[in-house]
Every structure is written in C-alpha cells, then in structure tokens.
Amino acid sequence: MKKFVLFILAVLPILLCVATPIDVVYAESAVYYRITESTTLYRTSELDENEAFFTLPTTYFVKFLKDVNSEVMQVEYLDFEGFVLKKNFTRVYSTPQKPYLDSVSFEPESVANLVVRQKPSTSSNFVGTIPFNALSVTYLGSIEGEQVNSQLNNIWYFCRYTSPEQGTISGYVYSPLTKNLTQIVPNIEEVSLSPMQPASGELAISPELQSSNNLIFIAGLTILGMIILYLIFHSHNKVNKNLKKQLKNSKLMLKSNNDELDF
Questions:
Q1: 37 and 24 together in one domain
Q2: DSSP 8-state class, residue 134
Q3: Which of 32, 58, 122, 218 has most Cβ atoms within 10 angstroms of its Cβ?
C-alpha cells in the first residue's frame, strides 16, 4: 500500500503538466492578436455604437484578455480595455516589439482653443480644452461622429493632452479643427502565425511555455517526481537488502546447527 501511494505521488506531477490547460497554468504569458480588418474598440461587450472608443489601426496589435463568447473578446490596446469582434483579428504566436501605434500627434488649427469632449458630439460632456498654440497633441485613434458642418467631414480624433492647469485629459476633438497629423504608417513587423517550430530532432515548445516562470514550474514538478521515484526504488532496494541479510543469517544458523549435530 505504501508503494502504491508513493507511485501515485510520483506520477501526479506529470499528469498535472499534461492535463492542466495551458491558458490556466500559464496565464501570465501575454497573447496578442493582429488587427487584420478595420474594426472598432468598444467600451461594452454588447458592441454598442454609442459606447465606442475609436477605430483600431490595421496591422497593429491588441493584447488578449479573455473570450466573451464565440464572436467577441476583451482586449487591451494602449492603456484602454475594451471589446472587439474576433473575426477582424489573427492570433500571433510571438510578442510584438511595437504592438500599438505611437508617436502620432497633431496641432490645433490655430484659430481658437480646441474643445475636448467625452464623446464625438458637440452635445457631449465637456472634458477640457487644448490651447490653440499647442505644438503636439497625442493622437490615439479616430471615429465617425457628429458632422458639425455639412461641408466638412464627420471624423473626430480621440486624443490625450497634458498641461499644468488641467493635468492629463483624454477625449474627442473635431478633426477639421486640427492640422499636421503625423503620417500613420503600417506596422510591418514580422510575427509568428503558428506555434514555434522545432529544430530537427528537438521538441517543440509552445509560446505559453517560453517564460522562465513556466520553465521553473515544470522543472520543479519534474524534480519532485524524480525524488519520489527515487524514494520508491530506494525503499524497495532497502527491503531487498534486509531480506537478503535475514536469509543469509538463517543459512548461517542452519549450517551451525548442522555442524553441532555432526559433532
């Protein structure tokens, strides 16, 4: 019975490595999706058009957080968490070096201070203002909103601006009132579209297992299993030695008794 218990303890770590879902054990490993089709980041999982952040730039990436259902997933883009349609993304199996659009900015049209609003509409709540002479306002994305002037477009920029008076504010400004938007270039970074391929004769290791913490976890379980197996065989060998010693002593005693009888 003791050997059986030790054997179960030895096999259990191996079974845990095999049977436990990778997404559970290695949840700390970031998973990214590439934006392959024009899509919107929403504040709610219902993908309500009134609760949209902005359109995500194709060729860039989002960090996967969790599946909501078969069609919607929760993701992170920059420091915003939101919801997107999964069909507009492709899973990648390596970590992008530049996942998000950055270093894109614009200036006010130099006519008056830009009003920043909570949503892309002049009736939306007031967030703050951007001085007409500001040289760099951080561009985060764009979205269709209210068409303020029938002769102008209906595109609003979602932006961020920091000033000593207001601190950091984020919101929407009407794009026709801006100028000098930095050119948005596609992300041409190459990423793996399939799990890491092994070299000839080597074992393939999925990206979720690449981090040092994951490898330490596996190594720990393996060492534990080896120790328990050693104890099993060591105990077995010790029992065999004791039995052999007892058998030898019995033979010596029997020989001694036979010698006495011969005498």
A1: no
A2: -
A3: 32
